[in-house]
Amino acid sequence: MSTFELKNTSEISRxxxxxxxxxEIETPFFMPIATKGAVKTMSSKDMKDLGAQILLSNxxxxxxxxxxxxxxxxxxxxxxxxxxxxxxxxxxxxQVFSLSKTNKTTEDGVTFRSHINGDKVHLTPELSMQMxxxxxxxxxxxxxxxxxxxxxxxxxxxxxERSLRWAKRCKESVDPSQKLFGIIQGGxxxxxxxxxxxxxxxxxxxxYAIGGLSVGESREDAYRITKAICKILPEDxxxxxxxxxxxxxxxxxxxxxxxxxxxVLPTRNARHGxxxxxxxxxxxxxxxxxxSQIRITNTEYAIDDSPIDPHCTCETCQNYSRAYVRxxxxxxxxxxxxxxxxxxxxxxxxxxxGLRG
Length: 357
What we know:
The protein is an alpha/beta fold.
């Protein structure tokens, strides 16, 4: 079982430590997305220098390339990407649902066509565990049945019940050296979420994730469900909100008891020139409106020789101007995406440090 020590709880966050095979992590924390074994435009050294405690990679993508046997031969993802810290792997359930135009779900698993070459693949809870074992992740996620964000109650219930059955199969086949998290499903139906959480608690996991939110539901619904679920989850196990979100959302979720976060927003936005800037000071979130977003490619920054954010201490803000970063985007220099990714990830790392106090 994972060693999670809850040190104290405040109106801001739960502060603790999570001990994993590749290191100890302070909570709450944010996991940058290294879907295919790399955070886009960034090296593993870059991520270490930014203070990332843990990275998130994806079972679906690594199963397709380089593949199960190749990953075994390569000695796992830590060695492959030269990352010494912890790694969490998503199970692939969401990607099977979102990336494959045609997939068929049965009690055994999901059959789909690869979005790369059309090859037929049958992904089961057992294969997901095997692949996550080959990857060598510190934290692995159960394989779950993912319902679309606009599903009927009947579909949410079906997916939730099947995910519980698959959770048992995952626990039976997980590599004992890895820490397995169950995923709570049920859409925006509080009673289904409660049944899902209680079913997973009965099975027993190293941690519990809230899945199936940040998929188009209202923010109020996401807040309501998360607050309700955190009230019934074990105090001594880490809680993970999957796929969320905006900085103010993370601040709220941490305040109701969530410990772990991931989201593509900081890196994806950066590559498109949308950057987070502090309103009052680096790491200061005294109210809900504690930051702004700027579009660095806008004409207004053409001769702006100030840093992206005068409050920010990241490498980009300490060395380059808004005008220069805008210029890099306009001439299609790859460096533009790296410099903005550094900035946005630094923003999220400072946000989490502030939440930890």
